[in-house]
Amino acid sequence: MDLLEISQSIRKLRLQQNLTVDQLAKKSGFSKGFISQVENFRITPSLKALNAISAALGVPLASVLTSDPAVPEYTIGSVEQGEEIFRNDNIRYGMRYLALAYEQLGRELEPFIVEYKKCSEERPLLLHDTEEFYVLLTGEVEFFIGGAAEPEKLSAGQTIYLKANIPHRVRLSENCTFARALVIYSQKNKLANNQSD
Hints:
Blueprint: H1 3-16, H2 21-28, H3 32-39, H4 47-57, H5 61-64, E1 83-85, E2 95-99, E3 109-117, E4 132-138, E5 140-145, E6 152-155, E7 159-162, E8 168-172, E9 178-186, H6 188-196
Antiparallel strand pairs: 1-2, 2-3, 3-9, 4-7, 4-9, 5-6, 5-8
Helix pairs in contact: 2-3, 2-4
């Protein structure tokens, strides 16, 4: 495999995991510029660098060195051990995201745990172009949907299924200091968009 194929393989693996160049740089210990140069075939990474990049991607080095990495039929994980991801300024709003299936490349579903803690700043409504299934595991939250004046109050064990493009946000209930939820949404639209780039 030549260096052009390696650079494209790294980019493909990064996109399959919905990582930005900046996120991969932080995880691998390199600068954003270095990762960008590797992906754009501007520099030749050492074997040590390739090893660090593959570890950050959660795949064996062979996957980076292969033009078409093999995708396992299944992966086993735990709701207690997800890969921390950063999105939509989550730390600012007292939220933590843990991706549960990040090792399953090319996945169509994106399951992750969201943890909430008290925060003085309220997150604005967000929407995305895929459907979402939300399961509150612990705690109590208020789930704001669209332009509704009153939020839906959820306690542990309750669920919400949202169609695509519905603005929503979650905040802890007044007497709750911590909550945890399982969220699953489809990647189909995102994968199609990535392939069209």
